[in-house]
Model the fold of this input.
Amino acid sequence: APDANEEYLFYQTLIATWPGEELTREAHETYIRRLQEYMIKAIKEAKVNSSWIQPNEEWEEAVRGFVTKTLHRGPNRFVKSLTPLAEAVAQIGVVNSLAQLVLKVTVPGVPDFYQGCELWNLTLVDPDNRQSVDFNVRQKLMESMAEVPPGELFDGWRDGRIKLFITQKLLQFRGEHARLFELGNYTPLKTTGAFAESCLAFSRELGREMLLVVVPRLSSRVGFPPLGEKWADTEIELPANLSGKRVREVWTGAELDAGGGKLRVAEALQTLPVAAYFSAP
Done:
């Protein structure tokens, strides 16, 4: 114990929840306890080696011991080999999470926010699903980022403030331009160049108002962070009615000339790996 399927599940769970920093002894013990509870619940519900009705306590105890021994404190070859992979996956996850957030708020439909997901959410189905949301932490983080440039927030992505910042800015913008999101057209935009398949762009338009959204996909092909000249010659073909206009980025305030019919992704994604540019009369 564990069998091969259970062991694979354990490694996947480690990658998904890896804290990315050295934990205190107490936090390390809590992390192990969470993983143990998660694994035992999964094993019981799989009904292969144990179950709720007929628990195999010997098997379950062996799995608990496997979790403890695998993650023991001190010199640990397994943890040393796991950390670089977990870091690489986390970087891709950060970009994907921000892209998903921007899409959730800007595509047609009503965005649904799950309380507690304003920051990175590395919780497990069980036992973490019973935890209450710490709103005081979120309030303090929101206050602390008031004067911090967006680029610095992204550089310090581990604390989650960059996700909170984009959430706040986009919802504020959506509230100020409600009719654009309620009634505006949705137009997918063509991308060309070296990383055309790694860039998703579209516009929302109502009357003389237009929102241009740019997010990455498959960003590992571009590199981390997927910013600036890493996008090489990738371009977005812009709507004709942006001719001669300048657009302003929603959360950085940066302005770009959108009058040439095309927009270089290297220019659009200079500071953050996601962008939303607004054009209004």
Remarks:
- Residues 191 and 197 are 8 Å apart (CA to CA).
- The two ends are 66 Å apart (CA to CA).
